[in-house]
Amino acid sequence: MFLAVSIVCDDYFLPSLEIISDSLGLSQDVAGATFMAAGSSAPELVTAFLGVFVTKGDIGVSTILGSAIYNLLGITAACGLLSTVVSRLSCWPLFRDCMAYAISAAAVLAMIIDNKVHWYECVSLLLIYGVYILVLCFDIKINQYIMKKFSPCCACFTVAAEEAEQPLIGWKEETGPLLRRQSRADSGMFQDESDYSQLSISLHGLDSISEDPPSVFTMPEADLKRILWVLSLPIITLLYLTTPDCRRQFWKNWFMLTFLMSAVWISVFTYVLVWMVTIVGETLQIPETVMGLTLLAAGTSMPDTVASVMVARKGSGDMAMSNIVGSNVFDLLCLGLPWFIKTAFADTSGPVEVNSSGLTYTAISLVCSIAFIFLAVHLNGWKLDKKLGAVCLVMYLIFAVLSILYELGVIGNNPIRMCGN
Questions:
Q1: Within 10 A of 207 (CB to CB), how many other CB atoms are there?
Q2: Can you give the residue range of the structural domain that contains 34?
Q3: What sign for the dihedral angle of Cα 189, 190, 191, 197?
Q4: What CATH number is associated with residue 150?
Q5: Domain total of the chain
């Protein structure tokens, strides 16, 4: 299933995102925070609907809030450690997405603090997401205003202001590999044609798709890749028969169908993956909370991890970070959709009942992780590299160990619950 998610992301999801971004004139960070975040977060949205309408429990809330720390620290660590390319990050996109994430987390936590969710509270979540999308639509205007206003008192904004005036460039540091970045003048969904850089780099480092890629049924030459190709042949065939390959000229205009089908298959593969992980936890008698903090968190976030690592390895650091934080924003605010449908249409007799136990610990963890990511990137010179990845990995391991010790009753007084009980 890990391999299946990787295939659907690399061969279908990211190419469709590339064409969508080019068609709408989106910069890498805006594309990462919108379409990429929504597509790779499809499993969380499905989980939220299942929790509200099927299991009638808190699976949606617990999954989304429980994996938030992994999304920020774990995926950032994977992007830094698994990428050979050092990506230069922009100050404004990270600040914008972290601020949106903080507001989203505060809104959700304020809603569930009384264990009840009303329809008007659900509407407020959807309105917040609407405002976030509106900010992204006029990102270039807001970016220029912020840089002009605060560049005298903030060094990172000064650097961003200087870089925003330059076209897309690539360069090499004295001790590092190629760094790529995209001009911040390329941001914004509704920008003038003259503002959009004709030199914008695609996800795959190409200005355009000039010819069809090799057939997915072409056997690789390397021995290890041949083994993986044979093992994944059923998945390759299934995707080939159900999802148009928009990398090919014949299917290029069907990119939206490719995007939607990719999101569907990502959800299906992730569901099977999480189901398998749950069975492993029950078989090995591992507490469900421990599984949730480790393998389940990684499993539900696998599409985000694969997609972010792939674009980071191509030098698109802003897109990777915007997908990481933007996915969390989407995850939190998408909780309002199933809640609103249930309270406004399906069951209007009363609010949705949720369990807010552990709310204080979750709130502190979310706020600390947001502040840590922004501060770590700033102290690292606005680069996504192995050093930043190692620091994020250490912080995530510390968080995971402390959480597991608490759930096992070693720290504090907490009853142990096994999977399936």
A1: 11
A2: 2-209+259-407
A3: positive
A4: 1.20.1420.30
A5: 1
Sign of CA dihedral 310, 291, 356, 365: negative
Is-contact 98 374, C-beta < 8 A? yes
Beta bridge partners of 372: none
The answer to whether position 232 is within a domain reads no
CA angle 214, 219, 221 (to 5 degrees): 100
Give how far Cα 348 sits from Cα of 48, 114, 311, Å.
Answer: 19, 19, 44
Q: Which helix (H) or strand (E) holds 60?
A: helix 59-66
State both tokens at 306. 């694969």
Q: Which residues have CB under 8 Å from 297's CB, separation 6+?
A: 66, 67, 69, 70, 74
CA distance 24 to 36: 14
3-state secondary structure of 287: strand
Q: Are the beta carbons of 37 and 337 closer than 8 angstroms?
A: no
Parallel, antiparallel, or unpaired for β 352-353 and 116-117?
antiparallel
Q: pLDDT tens string for the chain (421 positions)?
A: 878 888 888 889 888 888 888 888 777 778 878 887 877 777 777 767 766 776 555 554 555 666 677 888 889 999 999 988 888 888 888 888 899 988 988 888 888 788 788 888 889 988 998 898 888 888 888 888 877 777 655 555 544 444 444 333 333 333 344 343 444 444 443 343 333 333 333 444 444 445 678 888 888 888 888 888 899 999 999 999 999 999 888 888 898 999 899 988 988 887 787 778 778 878 888 766 667 667 767 777 778 888 888 888 888 888 888 888 888 888 788 778 888 888 888 777 778 777 655 556 666 777 888 889 999 999 999 999 999 999 999 998 888 788 777 767 777 665 555 544 4
In a domain, 413, yes or no: no
Please report, in angstroms and rounded to a whole number, the separation of the first and last CA atoms in the chain. Answer: 26
What contacts 127, CB < 8 A, 6 or more positions away? none
Between CA 327 and CA 35 the distance in angstroms is 10
- Is residue 224 included in any domain, yes or no? no
Residue 227 in domain: no
Across the strands, what pairs with 171? 179
